Each structure stands twice: as structure tokens, then as C-alpha cells.
Amino acid sequence: MANTKSAEKRNRQAQKRRARNVNVRTTVKDAVKNMRDTLTTKDTAKTGDALKAATRTLNKAASKGVIHKRAASRRISRLAKAANRAKAAAK
Q1: Cβ atoms of 24 and 64 closer than 8 Å
Q2: b/e per residue, 46-60, with b = 16+ CB within 10 A?
Q3: pLDDT tens, N- to C-terminus, the chain (91 residues)
Q4: pTM over 0.90
Q5: Side-chain-facing half-sphere of 77: CA atoms under 13 Å
Q6: Taking a C-beta distance cutoff of 8 angstroms, is the pair 35, 47 a contact?
Q7: Measured at the alpha carbon of residue 17, what is the angle toward residues 73 and 11, in degrees to the nearest 5?
């Protein structure tokens, strides 16, 4: 429990940040999940759109500091690789 006025304020700020970060992380997970789901449909147009959306969401999360920029880059790379593999398999 916070004992000082400043500690109480820091606690309030941390709770606000946590709520914001949880929301962003959920959005990232949803975007990545949608991307992974489109890989099974064999529709390259949908996969491309989903990859673009997931990339944008991951970059936004990284710019806000919710996830590390290298973690975002790594995830984007893996999604792009998966999309390229699906595209090659469709041909």
C-alpha cells in the first residue's frame, strides 16, 4: 500500500498505463491471430491485407513502448515469412 501522496499518484498512473497497455496488447494479439487465420484460407489477397494490418498494429505498439521495437520487428518478420510460404504453396 502506498504511504505517501507521491506514491499514491504513481500507483494511479501505473494503473492507467497498465489498462492502456493491456488494450494495445489485446489488439496486437487479435491482429496476429487474424493474420494466422487467413493463412489457412489460401486467399493471398486477404493474407496480404491481414499482414498489412498486423504490421501496422505491431509498429504502433512498438512506438508506444508497449512492446520492444525488436520484438515487433521479429514478429513482423515471422508473419511475412509465413505469408510468403503460403503464397508460394498456392502457386
Answers
A1: yes
A2: ebeebbebbbebbee
A3: 789 999 999 999 999 999 999 999 999 999 999 999 999 888 889 999 999 999 999 999 999 999 999 999 999 999 999 999 999 988 7
A4: no
A5: 6
A6: yes
A7: 140
Whole-angstrom Cα distance, residue 41 to residue 63?
Answer: 31
Give the count of beta carbons closer than 10 Å to the beta carbon of residue 28: 20
**What are the grid coordinates assigned to 35, written together?**
493474420
Is residue 66 classed as helix, strand or coil in its secondary structure? coil
Q: Which residue has cell 501496422?
A: 56
- Residue of 15, 41, 35, 31 whose CA lies nearest to 82: 35
The end-to-end CA distance of the chain, in Å, is 61
